[in-house]
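During the reporting period the student researcher (J.K.) took over the structure-prediction task from the postdoctoral fellow and processed the backlog of single-chain submissions. One of the processed entries is reproduced below for the supervisory committee.
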Amino acid sequence: MTVRKTLLALGGATLMSVPAWALPGTALSDPNGPPSTTPNNATNRGAGHRSSAANDAIEDRASNKREDQNSGSKAPANAGHSGKSHRCKPHGVAYVASGTLESWSLTKNPDGSYSGSLTVKVTHTNHHGAGDKSSTPKEYKVENVHVTFGLADTNNDGGVGLDDLAKGDSAKLIGKITTLARKCSHTEFTAKTTVRHIVFNAPSPS
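J.K. obtained the following structure tokens:
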């Protein structure tokens, strides 16, 4: 009888020294309670430190997310973007043409620029001006262009200008020409050339 009491006393002491988490059948628990299934809900810890506007925004996002999940719909990939292409809009590119001066009717403006017209037999162009290269002289109408006279003062009046020009002088025209992509419709498109600078030089030696 004495031995049995001793064993019972030892067993009780052993149970008292074992931590509660080691006992069988005891579920682990979070000291702060079970994890919330609605982490954005205003009842969670820390929600009390948020403003009412912040809580409302969080709730709206959660509500929208639930609605999207329920509907299963997705916004189209191109939502908010126009399907209209701007590639077929005429745009300006560099234009350079040079040749022999045939005739001219130019007037000097008060600001030093020139306006009027000139006719040139075009012999050289850049890629964009290739359509103007021809044996037939081309007339250019110009407005407020800058002119450089690389000529001699042939009339000895102390300056070089329009009165020193002569048929056969070299003329170089620089500006812009409108263009359109090849894949676009050219039915109603006409290229427009805008000259901004003219350079006159003495004719090249034969």
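The committee noted the following: Residues 73-84 have pLDDT under 50 and may be disordered.
J.K. will present the remaining backlog at the next meeting.
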